[in-house]
Amino acid sequence: MEGRPWDRLLHRAGLDAPGAPGPGTGECVAAATDIAFILDSSSSITDTEYTTLKSFTRTMIENLDIGAETSRVAIALFSAEAEVVTGLSFDEAALLN
Questions:
Q1: How far apart are CA 63 and CA 59, in angstroms?
Q2: pTM listed for this prediction
C-alpha cells in the first residue's frame, strides 16, 4: 500500500473503509465515535512504562460507552513495525484481552 506512512495502519484498522468518518468521505455520525489507542511497544520505553500504558488503556476502555450507537475502539502497537491488535470493535471483552 502506497501513500502516507500511516495509510497501511489505517487500512489494517479498518479506518479507510467506505463510510468511515474522515477526510474525503463526507460522512459522519455525530453520536458515534471511533477511538484508537496506539501504544509504543518499542525498546525506547521500560517494562514499567509499558505496563502503565496498558493499564491506562484498560481503564479508559472500561470507562468508555462502547456500542454501535456510541463508540468503537481499536488498539495498535508500534515499534519497528505497526501491529493492529484489534481493529475497530464494539466487543469490550475482546478489547480487554
A1: 6
A2: 0.65
